[in-house]
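User:
I study polymers; will you set down one protein's sequence and backbone structure tokens?

Assistant:
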Amino acid sequence: MIKEIKELFNDEILSIAAQKFGTTFDKVKLLGGFESFVYEFEADNRYYVLKITHTLRRTFDQLMGELEFINHLAMKGVSVSRAVTSVNGNLVEQIPALKGTFLAYVFEKAPGDLIDKKDWNADLFYKWGRLAAEINLHTQNFSPSNESYRREHWKNEMKAYFDRFLPESETEVREKGYALFDKMDSLPRTKESFGLVHTDLHQWNFFHHEGKLTAFDFDDCTYHYFAHEIAIPLYYSFRNIMPDMAKADYIEFFKKHFIGGYTSILPLSDYWMKTIPDFLRLRHILMYSVFYQAFGENMNEKQIKHLAEHKKAIFDDKWADLGFVEN
């Protein structure tokens, strides 16, 4: 989390946010949060998630764009954690701080839990692929109620992250990143291949309950290519290859079940299949700047080593030999 946001936050801000959504300071339970403060509370025998961020990170308009998109998906029958209104009927409540403004918003808590290793099976991956495709399908008829609520284009968002958190001394990574941004930005954009997407639909951003998946945390939603929604689950699940499964076997498993689920809703041409390694590279290089943000200036030995290993993988190009024939 941005250091300045942490320093501005206090119990009074939390208490005001809680009251605006019909609860109290003593009834909210901290869940954590990497880029926002995240709490859980119960009201009328239902559970909710309260998120609090700051205008240093997101604007009111950006949050409105996110929440309208989520509720549009919910209305279309997609399994997502719906955003709810405050006691004043607002999706986002603004709380002035010593500098800038805190922004509070609430969702219905998704039923179930994060998936466990024992749940990693063909059925889960098929449903995960279908969920990604349902989001991509229904973004095709979404427009924000106000043009100012329109979320960012992925390249603008990513470049801003690079410029803000990646030190200028990282010239090689910056050059490689900017070249990749330009390459990906030149891909064709159609209603069937590009739109507002979750952007981060990995295994920690949905719950699993009685055979149903419910997506949440659309905080990073941007206008992006649909193929990116396939690459992200592959990128993160690749780190957790199922027991006794070799890399090549896992890739085939992913293609058969996740992509099989996806293509049961939306088609996926060979052209877009061939772009997936570049989308994997895109996420990997973005994570390098994310680690700089998370670790801060005074890194310990473990963090320095982690960064070095991550950087080595950027230039070794670990995504080149995954069984996709690239464009």
